[in-house]
Amino acid sequence: MKYSLTNLIDKIGKHDTSMYEKYIPLFISEARKGLNWDEWNPDVFEQYFEKATNAVAYLGQGVMRPAQKETVKRRWTELAPHLKAIAESQDVPLWNEYKVIREIVKSCTGANMLVATNRMLAGLQPKLLSTEVDLIKINELFDYLQDYTDAPIPQYNKDCWEEAGYALTKLLHMAAPDRTSADIGFLPWKLLEFFREKSAELPSYWLTSWNEKDFRLHDYLKKYDLIDWNNKNNNRFKVGDIVYLYSAHPERRIRYKMKVLMAEVPVDERIDDSEYAVTPTEPSDIPPVRLKLIDSVGTQLLDHNALKENGIKGFIRSPRRLSGEILSYINAVWRSLQQDYGELEKPDEIYEGAKKTVVVNRYERNCEARSRCIAEHGCRCRVCGMDFEKTYGELGKGFIHVHHIVPLSEIGKEYRLNPIEDLVPVCPNCHQMLHRGIDGKVLTTEQLKEIIRKAKG
Q1: What is the pTM of this model?
Q2: Is residue 344 one of the residues assigned to a domain?
């Protein structure tokens, strides 16, 4: 299920932002002067923090106690040049200035005034920073947007409010160019409210484990895309849910991402995987759940230590529903590993040839295989020579698609992928042309090179 972010925003009514629009320009104007506190308009600070009904005040957050505000005022000369720099830079984020201001406010108040400080920063750069001051909520919203909308999710630092707020605000402005900065500030809460209300209809995320000493899952998934997973605990899986599979032994890390295709598999339709079972399992009256492989990874970012540091508790055995910090972390890691893959024009086109049905870009999107291919061959297109880093600088660094040399229709049941010999780096355009082919046949890289040569005359 994919929503249009623009359509969702259109359905969210616009808010009365008159007070916000009155006091924010005053606050920015005074900060641009860079004067001592005594030379400011004496009401601006109070009005901004106590009277302006901006998106943060709407939730009653970010209020400094009177004594804290007085301390901040007395040390205004320290803050003034940094506030001035931010107020004068309405279109460029100033990461270092944000950090300095936060440290000054903390030293003034003796407390970690993240909410109040973030509110101040958002007020100085409303076009850049979301007034959503809760980083956990921003990350939660990004996860919803990534999984359930067509929005192009940008890279951002999930541990940094300024970068997360900047990325979110920019994304919302792109999706709703007719909305004012003041109105954009209300959208995060409204979007979160929408997705939370829809949560019963939206896919849930699960984490469960297997042990290679009991079942040879790695070997199984090299041949098959579908597996009927034991649901002896009678967990409430539903069609469309995402299940992360954790290797309890020997790797102790998440290896696979699966999707629920069937919540209860009837007896007469169950897949026989007994040849991969090392330890026979006890029969259960509870029907298994059918899972389809989406992709696999092999990164230490998803090992037990990393998961524990990001909120996982206890041993990973029976299925558990994921939410909050740990879900945001796992999704962010998986997203970062898949940013460069690119989809083909017809990702659901299939070829029969192995014991399983093979999706045309299945191997090309495998994280481990892709990494090994690029480590060996680099990021230069094998066909046209395109190097994204040379063209786009840092933005293009590391970006490339990978292409499967051997036509998947020729893969036999005992086939084992060799990422170095079977995959080559290609740019998205050449990748598309290779698969477009001639008379239904995928082109080789040499054939496409010759086509390009002839086209250039």
Answers
A1: 0.51
A2: no
